[in-house]
Amino acid sequence: MLDIKFIRENPDKVRKAIQDKRMGVDLDRLLSMDEHLRKKQVEMEQLQADRNRISKAIASATPAERDGLKAQVAGIKPRLETLENEVRELSGEFEQLMLLVPAPARDDVPLGKDDTENVEVKRWGEVPKFDFKTKDHVEIGEALDLFDVERGVKLAGSRSYVLRGLGAQLEAAILRLTVDHLNKKGYTQLAVPVLVKEEAMVGTGYFPVGREQAYLVERDEMVLVGTAEVSLTSYHSGEILKDEQLPLRYFAQSTCFRREAGTYGKDARGLYRVHQFQKVEQVVIGHADTAESDQLHSEILGNAEAILQSLELPYRVVYVCTGDLGQGQVRKHDIETWMPSRNAYGETHSCSTFYDFQARRLKLRYKDKNGQNLHAYTLNNTAIATPRVLIPFLENHQTADGKVRIPKALQPYLGGRTTLG
Known about the structure:
The chain is of the alpha+beta class. It is built from twelve helices and 18 strands. Helix 3 (about 25-60) runs antiparallel to helix 4. The longest helix is centred in the N-terminal third of the chain and has 36 residues, at about 65-100.
């Protein structure tokens, strides 16, 4: 959520953000409602002050004066009740509109309509050249009995799967390697709920805009999260932290759920786009300082890169353009890992900076060194997500004899095994 004062003072900048991020927000209506609401609030507060002043005078008034003063209070009451109802109704509508306003992107974010216009900024690793007929991850998984899509669909419908034997062990090994890396970096590991209240989804910006992507447990007014970011970022909601506590570096491994609404028929084969998956997510809560935020963005992006490098997977980093940014993101880098079956890089990680967008919604503040309460800045990044990362892992490390090579860094997590198969 943006500060309404910022919106009033920078309407052109906000209007550009709405256009650049391709979001249907009626800014003129919002500003008109804001002006109307403020006028109603001023009148209401004046009447409340008059009522309180007159009521206080009644106590010291003479009997003759009291009747007149009571009549004045009675005369104020109907208009005040009307105003209070109007303000209550307008405030609710105003807050809903405010939840739709996007954060302006940083000035250096490339202008573009969608992910095809993201800008590559870095590559790491050599794309493998095979001297044999390669298989895609589904063929490899079936040949080595690593996963079972058919029975997964039987159990849970489309975009479902079951990891079996060494497939399940491989996923667990990659997750454990990631967890160990972040623990060594000094990040605090949390085990968080994946079933949360709706206010956590609103607070992190996933509702109301992304509501169609979430699984709702409507009977209990709860939601299954699509990322541990929701729980980690909401962990300190409504709190005022101490300046010296920041930045807080958290991570969590969790099961995640996404409906993948609007993707019918897209990436339907295999493990790329599924409804349930495992992810290790990094979240940082920092000071309201853009320089610090930039440094932290590079730090968490670097963590994800280091993990991919230890898995010996070639990847590239792209700077995400305005049309591919989320509502609250002021900038984002995606990591795309090479997937031989696609003959292209596929997205596996996203690193996002929000400034105070999420913190305002979550009422997440800290007391700075001058004693002032400020909204914190938040960031997050995928450390690893599986089973998607299994696609490049299996395809890049496949060998001519039908096996899959295990990189040296991962071997201790698989009992010293050097290959699958």
